[in-house]
Amino acid sequence: MEERTEEGHTQENGGSDCAARQPRTSPCTSLRMFLVALSFAYFAKALSGSYMKSTITQLERRFDIPSYLIGVIDGSFEIGNLLVIAFVSYFGAKLHRPKIIAVGCVLMSIGTFIIALPHFIIGRYEFETSVRWVVNSTLNPSPCRPDSLANLTEDGTLPQVPASGCEGESNLSMWIYVLLGNVLRGIGETPVQPLGISYIDDFATEENAALYVGCVQTISVVGPVFGYLLGSLCAKIYVDIGFVKMETITITPSDSRWVGAWWLGYLIAGVITLLSAIPFWFLPRSLPVSRPEVPEKCTPEQTSFIKGSPLLKHKYSADEHTSFIEMAKDFIPTLRTLLAHPVYLVYLCVTIIQLNSLIGMVTYKPKYIEQHFRQSASKANFLMGVINIPAVALGMFSGGLLMKRLKLNIMGAAKFAFGTSLIGYILSLFFFAMSCENAKVAGVTLSYDNIEKISYDKHPLFTDCNSKCVCSSSDWDPVCGENGITYVSPCLAGCTTSAGSGKNTVFSNCSCVGVAGNYTASTGHCPQKDDCDRMFPYFLALSVITSFIISLGGTPGYMLLIRCIKPQLKSLALGFHALATRTLAGIPAPIYFGAIIDTTCLKWGQKRCGGIGACRIYNTTAYRIAYLGLTLSLRTISFIICIPGFILLSRQLKEEERSAIHGALRNGGTELEVLRKEELVISNSDQPHHPSENSTDRQTRL
């Protein structure tokens, strides 16, 4: 049997064969191979990115930094994108895209390893405790120290706390390495999305492109499932596992001072990312363009028409080689043309605001579950991985499938994305009703007389029952009294004696726990059973439903971006869209979300050598209002901007249709005849489609 020649090549004699046939290719040169490789790269980058978000509380506690600084670290990934994305998207589209993606994956891997580096340089983790000043003592110290042993300084600290650990305080600035590693991760991730998606869209049929993109986007959401599960596993393991005796550790994973083995997950993610780079080195620069199948017998006129078919108008030809100088000269005019597109600009504004809401919400959602519903970091990450993220993956895949089945045009995709987002927004309003009471902490959320009283000041920590003790208001070593109230430290609970060791330590003769002065307290927070426990399952259920509905519009919305612009602007449009969203959403959102969350902190941790560390307890009500209120306010603004967007999109489609009709009339009806031939060719090659349906689709594309 005769070997097929490259698709699109026409025999000169114009004979019976169209010769629009493809060469026999190896699996590595197929579009499916690229799809698998790109999906794995998406999985790797999504895994490491979600693992970063699962470790924000661990990093806060390990480096003693507030939430806004964690936002800076998280946003540094977008800074890396910002540095190179415009040039990678524009010039990379004209170069060898698979190899550029491979280089990016290698850089991501190196950046991930750098993030884990501080653990191997910094000293052992020393968590905050009120008895840390007692060294080499065989007797249990008295938490309530007599007046003659110490005098408080003006800021409430104990002067005899040893300063021997202060030389290691500079080690806490090692979080800079985490930031730099995340920047490098951002640089490496840059080419994966714009070059990968445009590669698929160039060499896949228009009908399959949406499904392929949906598959890739789905895999990118499956990655966070494993990322959060990895975060859950590592959060259970103590940070210095293997180097300390666990029986000497007095805190549990539910304690606000606990730090898990955050570094371990980054090593695993780095290896996976490095492996994802391998397939791209063996993929070709371009593939045969998928074109409408035609009968074995066709006329030269039909063959010529298929080569220049308007069905392929959004495809970019990789064979059109352009010099670097010419590309550089065309960059500014091309960018100016792109920014003059009104529909693209409105789409850009809407997605920037929506992503501000989404990024801020996702970044601090595990922290919200921890603080508001009093869950451990491990459980919060586990729930994000097995409940919330799969719903998002299913929604994105279903959205791509529905777009193919319903054959949504540009306007249909826009309406579908808007509708799903609006329904999710309405359902999200019910989160405000799912409130939890503040934890009962004496001197912080209620008085020592068990009267609810929120205090952002450290002075209410002192009262008559602990007046005989000289305590530090900066310590955070919570104990649970027999009366069900948590006290900031054994000293502030008025405890004079203690017995046992580690987690089994029991404090007795606690004057603040009972009037008789013979009540006891144990280490850790008091467990609270209230409406919050019954509310949590409803929160999870509503979270799953809203995540699924909102993500349904993800793929149609993304395809709207691809289809509303000219093919030669596609890669630049995708790259500039990523640039703008990372600059105006990815970078600032975690920072100002974290800064607003910091304002709800009731008790800050204390660094060894002075200065505030990570927050220990938040005002639950204020946290909920700030977190949810900011998220939904941003969505409200985006919906308002969508109104002129629909008007502009409708005008653009009408103008394109009108221009096509006028052009056909000027050519004496020849273009209309060409359109009829297109319908005839497609109907002959794809019988389930009727000419009327193809005519409708053609008008939509115009």
General description of the model:
This protein is mainly alpha-helical and 702 residues long. The strands form two sheets. A five-stranded antiparallel sheet has the order 2-1-5-4-3, with no helix packed on it. The protein has a two-stranded antiparallel ribbon with strand order 6-7. Mean pLDDT is 77; it is low at 1-28, 132-138, 152-164, 294-314 and 681-702. Helices cover 55% and strands 4% of the residues. The longest helix is centred in the last third of the chain and has 47 residues, at 620-666. Helix 1 (31-54) packs parallel to helix 7 and helix 6 (192-203) packs antiparallel against helix 16. It has three domains: 27-152 and 171-290 and 322-436 and 532-651, MFS general substrate transporter like domains (Growth Hormone, Chain: A), CATH 1.20.1250.20; 459-523, no CATH class; 658-701.
Task: Please outline the helices and strands.
Blueprint: H1 31-54, H2 56-63, H3 67-92, H4 97-116, H5 175-189, H6 192-203, H7 206-236, H8 262-276, H9 300-307, H10 324-339, H11 342-372, H12 377-406, H13 410-428, E1 479-481, E2 486-487, E3 497-499, E4 506-508, E5 521-523, H14 531-552, H15 554-563, H16 570-586, H17 588-598, E6 601-606, E7 612-618, H18 620-666, H19 670-685, H20 691-701
Kindly state the number of beta strands.
Answer: 7
Instruction: Specify the structural class.
Output: mainly alpha
CATH architecture grouping of the largest domain: Up-down Bundle
Number of helices: 20
What is the CATH homologous superfamily assignment of the largest domain?
A: MFS general substrate transporter like domains
Mean pLDDT: 77
According to CATH, the fold-level topology of the largest domain is: Growth Hormone, Chain: A
The Rg value, from CA coordinates, equals 31 Å
Strand order of the largest sheet: 2-1-5-4-3
Q: Kindly report the oligomeric state of this protein.
A: single chain
Order of helices and strands: HHHHHHHHHHHHHEEEEEHHHHEEHHH
Q: What form results from the Cα inertia axes?
A: elongated
Spatial separation of the terminal alpha carbons? 40 Å
CATH class of the largest domain: Mainly Alpha
Strand content: under 5%
How many domains make up the coordinates? 3
**Which ranges are low-confidence, i.e. pLDDT below 50, for 5 or more consecutive residues?**
1-28, 132-138, 152-164, 294-314, 681-702
Biggest sheet architecture: 5 strands, antiparallel
Measured as a percent range, the helix fraction is: 55-70%
Family: Belongs to the organo anion transporter (TC 2.A.60) family.
Membrane topology: Multi-pass membrane protein
Main location: membrane
Organism: Astatotilapia calliptera (Eastern happy)
